[in-house]
Amino acid sequence: MLNPIAPLQNQPPNPINFSTYERAINVSFNPGPHAQLFDIRWVVNYLENTPENPSQFQPKQVTWVLESKLEREDGASNSVLYRVKSENFFQFLAGAIDPATDRARKFVDIDIQITAVGQELADYIRVSGANLGITSSNQIPVYTNMSEGRGLFTSRTDIVLPDFELNDASITLLKTGPLTQNLNFQ
User: Fold this and answer.
1) By CB count within 10 A, which of 28, 83, 113, 183 is most buried?
2) What angle do CA 166, 168, 171 make, to 5 degrees?
């Protein structure tokens, strides 16, 4: 059984400071000793109006998968650290949201989702991925960790860290920066 994920204080900070493309922040958490594989996602929430009704804003969101299958290093400490680069965040937004001149958008917040799984599922993913690719047979081997039958007995734990804001300088970069200025955030 996995321990609950415990975020480390101020990693990431709230509000997040992505005031220049060169900045980066840490996402750090303590998943306990048995978690081995992690997914980190940011759900970016924003409001968007339409040309037909410019005073009415509808909630929208895009999900950025920062890391899928992040493995804990052997002998690593209890905490896990992932570094998020500001430029990557703005590049993601530029690719995930269509440019718009006929509608306005307002940034709301970011919800950070972290999922951790145990060693058993990490082993299964490694075994099933080992026999895929251009030179393989593309047959996934049978994998089980049960003594009397087939299956996979493991656990997972999730945490959602809601309501992360961007500081004022980051909002300014979102509105006016060359990567995202055509998204029409107000």
Assistant:
1) 183
2) 65
Strand 80-85 relative to strand 53-71: parallel, antiparallel, unpaired? Answer: unpaired
pTM over 0.85: no
pLDDT in tens, 13-34: 999 999 999 999 999 888 887 7
Domain boundaries, the chain: 6-118+156-183
Please report the DSSP string for 71-116 in residue order. Answer: EPPTT--S-EEEEEEHHHHHHHHHHHS---SSS-EEEEEEEEEEEE
8 touches 159 (CB < 8 A):
no
**Token digits of residue 107:** 């940034």
Is residue 117 over pLDDT 70? yes
